[in-house]
Amino acid sequence: MITVATVCSLIEKKLGSKAAGLTLDETTAFDSVGLSSLQIADIVYTIEDDAEIEFDPSQAANVKTVGDLVALVEATKSAGAAA
Predict the structure, then answer these.
(1) N or C: which end of the chain has fewer CB within 10 A?
(2) Is pLDDT above 80 for 6?
(3) Which InterPro entries does this entry report, sorted A to Z (predicted)?
């Protein structure tokens, strides 16, 4: 299961020591913590692999916050289960 804590942990790994002073939660915007677009894409791909799902690229492009990404995981899993 992909949770807010899971995504925050991935962000912390990407940022390394830069994450020390940050408070990460569901409202954290990816661009506000200094992640590059490549780092964001890597987090998205990691979550796809971990959850064994594939996001719709247009929906994934609209993800701006940790909460958005968790919601997209849930929506994608629900759509997959219904198919």
Answers:
(1) C
(2) yes
(3) ACP-like_sf, PP-bd_ACP
d(CA 64, CA 49): 20
Amino acid sitting at position 53: I
> Which one-letter amino acid corresponds to residue 82?
A
Query: Using one digit for the tens of pLDDT, what is the confidence trace for 12-70?
Result: 999 999 898 899 999 999 989 999 889 998 999 999 999 999 999 989 888 999 999 99
Amino acid at 76: T
Residue with tokens 């959850």: 51
Best CA proximity match to 26, nearest among 61, 60, 72, 59: 72
Q: 65 — phi, psi (to 5°)?
A: -125, 165
The two three-digit tokens of residue 17, written as one number: 């020591």
CB-hemisphere CA count at 13 Å for 51? Answer: 26
Residue spans per domain, the chain: 4-81
